[in-house]
Specification:
The complex is a heterodimer of chains A (266) and B (259). Chain A has helices spanning 5-37, 47-56, 58-92, 94-109, 112-122, 125-150, 154-162, 167-205, 214-223, 227-256, 261-264. Chain A is mainly alpha-helical. Chain B has a six-stranded mixed sheet with strand order 5-6-7-3-8-9, with helices on both faces. In chain B, strands 2-1-4 form a three-stranded antiparallel sheet, covered by helices on one side. The chains are: A mainly alpha (266), B alpha/beta (259).
Chain lengths: 266, 259
């Protein structure tokens, strides 16, 4: 080990410690502010009360969390399968892309909050929420997969031709691996958006009764002026978002770690 | 070397070949070129003169608009192609990249193990079989690219300015490696370059290309016998051959606007 390695390692450790300290300082500052100023909990609950509420209301919040997680991941799964399948069709037949891509764009640019009430008219609330989450997650996955399938190195394509590769070999050995970094980028964006779509649709669905997710619990707690529970549900929504992001970052690192510049430099 | 060109039937012959791109650009016009088995032929010319297009026609990566590419026995022999860039698959290890040509023909990795090992051995990269392309230097990537072209034991090796992007020391070393490989494999080599020195150092014959439209303006023989090594660069014969090639190149582009 060289003499420079020690400071470098210390630098890396600091890179982990300092952000954690900053986060802790914000939480403590919040707690101190609420206590020193005597702010009532229905205006701003302190972090300690939010934590207590999280434990005390776990019986209500846990099923809601489960519901939101289920919707998000089911929507993401459908968007991934559908997006990838459609991207393969687009890459193979340009005419299908020319015909269907504008529709995908229309779905993408129309704000989901505006579509949700209409979907709620036609569909069961739970299905409508799922469809909303699917619609917002679908487009980034599709467009990134299309871009990825197109971005295979031209010379490599010619090399495959030179050695008489079958189209299935070209797809499996060349186009899909070339598309992987793009696809994973789309998945990371789509994962976050699926959660947003699910939350937005739950709020639009409002007091739809059974099978309520986290967003519904936030709205409901708001009506009852139960601010600590609103915060507790919000913490769970954020934690879900962070967990999804970390999951896909980890997936990217596992799949691209050794060969792609985006991960290999870390 | 000189006399053998006319004696045997050429391995491949380009007969009055013309190539016009969809854009209307005439890349090649009325090109005649004979390639003799076992020779080291360089296609030398300025950029945009169609020499790479000629190589792609020989590789079968493009079809001529006019004329024909005629093979002895009317079939292209086993061919290896090396691009200007290493053109490796970044997600695959060195050995998997080298395996590719055989893999596409349905040969499993264990069946191809001997070919992969011997190709890597030929370019001196046996130790790096498990490495990934991004972990290698530019020169090493090019060696992998050459090793890949060698796995099918080609009798014809086509190289499209393979060393243009490398530093001079690496280029000289790869030039020597290429000469050694050709001797060991007894392959025919067609080598596209814009470097007079490189073409003279390597080739038994040089086809000098002129641009607009692309065509062969002169054929030069380099009489120096093989094996050649770095001392060949220091000889008066080398300097003279370079002068001749430069003059031919200048003559080919006479009347062209200087850019």
């Amino acid at each position: 080990m060289s003499a420079q390695a020690v400071p470098a390692r210390r630098g890396r450790a600091l890179m982990r410690v300092i952000p954690a300290l900053v986060f802790a300082a914000i939480i403590l500052g919040w707690e101190a502010l609420v206590r020193l100023r005597d702010i009532p909990p229905y205006i701003l609950p302190p972090p300690s009360l939010i934590a207590q509420t999280l434990v005390a209301d776990w019986g209500t919040l846990a099923p809601a969390l489960w519901m939101t997680l289920r919707t998000t991941f089911l929507a993401l799964l459908l968007a991934t399968v559908g997006g990838l399948a459609l991207a393969l069709l687009f890459a193979r037949w340009r005419i299908i892309e020319a015909s269907l891509f504008p529709i995908a764009v229309i779905l993408q640019v129309t704000p989901i909050i505006a579509i949700a009430p209409l979907l709620l008219v036609y569909l069961e609330p739970q299905t409508a929420v799922l469809v909303c989450a699917f619609i917002v997650a679908f487009f980034p996955i599709l467009s990134n997969a299309v871009l990825g399938l197109r971005s295979a190195d031209r010379n490599l394509i010619e090399l495959y031709q030179l050695y008489g590769a079958r189209p299935s070999q070209e797809l499996r050995l060349l186009r899909l691996p070339s598309a992987l970094p793009y696809f994973l980028g789309g998945l990371r964006i789509g994962g976050g958006l699926a959660l947003i779509g699910a939350i937005v649709a739950e709020i639009a669905a409002g007091a739809a009764g059974q099978g309520a997710g986290l967003a519904f619990r936030i709205v409901e707690a708001g009506y009852r002026l139960n601010i600590p529970r609103m915060f507790a549900a919000l913490v769970l929504v954020s934690a879900t978002g962070v967990a999804i992001y970390m999951l896909f970052s980890l997936l990217s690192r596992l799949l691209l770690g050794r060969w792609h510049d985006s991960e290999a430099n870390n | 070397m000189t006399n053998s060109a006319g004696a045997r039937a050429p391995l491949v012959e380009l007969v009055r070949v013309g190539k016009t791109f969809d854009t209307g650009v005439v890349a090649l016009d009325n090109l005649d070129l004979k390639v003799v088995e076992g020779e080291f032929l360089s296609l030398l010319g300025p950029s945009g003169c169609g020499k790479s297009t000629a190589l792609r026609l020989i590789a079968g990566l493009a079809e001529p608009t006019l004329g024909a590419v005629r093979w002895r026995g009317s079939q292209r022999p086993e061919t290896g192609f090396v691009f200007q860039e290493p053109t490796l698959m970044p997600w695959a290890s060195v050995e998997d990249n080298v395996w590719l040509p055989l893999r596409l023909r349905g040969v499993s990795k264990s069946e191809a193990a001997r070919e992969i090992a011997s190709s890597l051995d030929l370019v001196g990269l046996s130790r790096f079989a498990k490495a990934y392309p991004r972990e290698l230097s530019g020169g090493m990537k090019m060696r992998v690219s050459i090793a890949r072209a060698l796995t099918t034991s080609p009798s014809l090796l086509l190289l499209d300015e393979p060393f243009a992007a490398l530093d001079e020391i690496t280029r000289f070393r790869l030039n020597d490696d290429l000469l050694r490989l050709q001797r060991e494999l007894k392959a025919t080599v067609i080598f596209v370059t814009h470097s007079v020195f490189e073409s003279v150092y390597l080739s038994s014959r040089i086809a000098v290309f002129g641009a607009h439209p692309g065509r062969v303006t002169e054929m030069l023989d380099v009489a120096e016998p093989y094996p050649r090594d770095a001392s060949w660069r220091a000889t008066a014969r080398f300097a003279e051959a370079c002068r001749d090639a430069s003059a031919a190149l200048e003559h080919a582009s006479a009347g062209e606007p200087v850019l």
